[in-house]
Automatic annotation (TrEMBL):
<keyword id="KW-0732">Signal</keyword>
<comment type="similarity">
    <text>Belongs to the GASA family.</text>
</comment>
<dbReference type="Pfam" id="PF02704">
    <property type="entry name" value="GASA"/>
</dbReference>
<dbReference type="InterPro" id="IPR003854">
    <property type="entry name" value="GASA"/>
</dbReference>
<protein>
    <submittedName>
        <fullName>Protein RSI-1</fullName>
    </submittedName>
</protein>
<feature type="signal peptide">
    <location>
        <begin position="1"/>
        <end position="28"/>
    </location>
</feature>
Amino acid sequence: MAAKHPRVSYSLLVFLLLALCFFGSVHGLLKPSDCQPRCQIRCSATSHKKPCMFFCLKCCAQCLCVPPGTYGNKQMCPCYNNWKTKGGGPKCP
């Protein structure tokens, strides 16, 4: 069947590779060098940029994951989401 429809197979393969690249980078497969730009996006909407960047970079270095967007979506990064302060609050922005 793949021999009869090589364009469809190729298109599906390209789509799957793109999806893997996107979701892989969200789910803990970041390289340490990816943390700075991801945290800049994550902290772009806050008025407390320095502390946000400090904790985001710390969390990214530990978890190799930063949730997409400027707020929420923490379920996309379980390590990032579950890391708590001594008081039980969220450690990662």
